[in-house]
Structures are given as C-alpha cells and as structure tokens.
Specification:
This protein is of the alpha/beta class. It has helices at residues 3-27, 80-95; strands at 31-36, 49-53, 59-60, 102-103, 109-110, 115-119, 138-142.
C-alpha cells in the first residue's frame, strides 16, 4: 500500500469514528434547537417558547422539569383550551399551505426523535404565533400558568 493510500485510510477511519461518536453523543439527550426571545403577543410571558428534539427513546412529558429563571415549574396541561389552540394553529397551517400539523402528545408521551415546542402558558396568542410554513409534524406542550412573567432571560 502506498503512503498516500495508508494516510487516506487513516483519515477515513478517524472521520468515521468521530461521526459515529458525535451521533451517539447527541442522540442520547434532548437537544434544544431554538428559543423564542422577545415573544410576540401580549402578555409576552405567555407567548415565550422553545423548541427541542426528543432523543432516540420516547419521552413522557410527566417526567420532565424545567428550571425557569424567574418562574416556578408547574408541569404541563392538556385540556379543552389547549386542544382548541392546537385546532386553530392547524387551521392556520392548512390555510398557509403548510404540510404538517401541531400535535398534542397522546398520554403525554413524546415519540422518539420528535420535534417539540414548549410554550410557557396554555393562554398563548395563536394570532401572534404563525406556524404556516411547518413541514414536519411537531408536538406542543403548554404550561398551565395563567399569569406568567417573562420566563426566558437573555443577558450578555
């Protein structure tokens, strides 16, 4: 084997190892993908949200806890109000030509690898939050808070 071929084989082996290691490392945990800061809607605190992706194993939302910088963790709520909000969001998605849906988890279980949006209050403003360009079914979780001050703090 030529020195160049041996070198190339070593490089490919290292790249393959790190690719597998990276995927394994990230796939074991929930991965936050985005945070909505300075949310639209009034009051702002009820309309803040973040998006994450579940790892390779289904996740029961009842087992989750969030450490908000300025509010108390209250768990999640799923009721007629949240179902109505989801129906409005889905009608808006269809009207905008989107090709996916917002879903509430059945029995609180989030499927493996599912994208999830967490909203700080079930009273969020559907008119201020458009998901019209949604291309992947996404689960939504809402906290039961009615008077939620700004939850997501930013600082430099």
């Amino acid at each position: 084997m030529t020195p160049f071929a041996s070198y190339l084989k070593s490089v490919l082996l290292i790249v393959t190892f790190f690719s597998i290691s990276k995927n394994t490392l990230y796939s074991q945990c929930v991965e936050i993908e985005s945070i909505l800061v300075a949310a639209c809607g009034t009051p702002e605190g009820q309309n803040e949200m973040f998006r994450f992706r579940v790892g390779p194993t289904a996740l029961n939302s009842g087992d989750m806890a969030i450490n908000w910088p300025s509010n108390t963790w209250e768990g999640f709520i799923q009721n007629a109000t949240t179902a109505s909000k989801v129906a409005i969001l889905n009608a808006n998605i269809v009207a905008a030509g989107g090709c996916a849906l917002i879903l509430e988890p059945v029995g609180g279980v989030l499927p493996a690898n599912a994208p999830v949006i967490v909203v700080t209050s079930y009273l969020f403003d559907t008119a201020a939050n458009s998901f019209g360009a949604l291309t992947e079914n996404t689960y939504i979780l809402s906290q039961p808070s009615e008077s939620f001050s700004k939850s997501i703090k930013t600082s430099c």
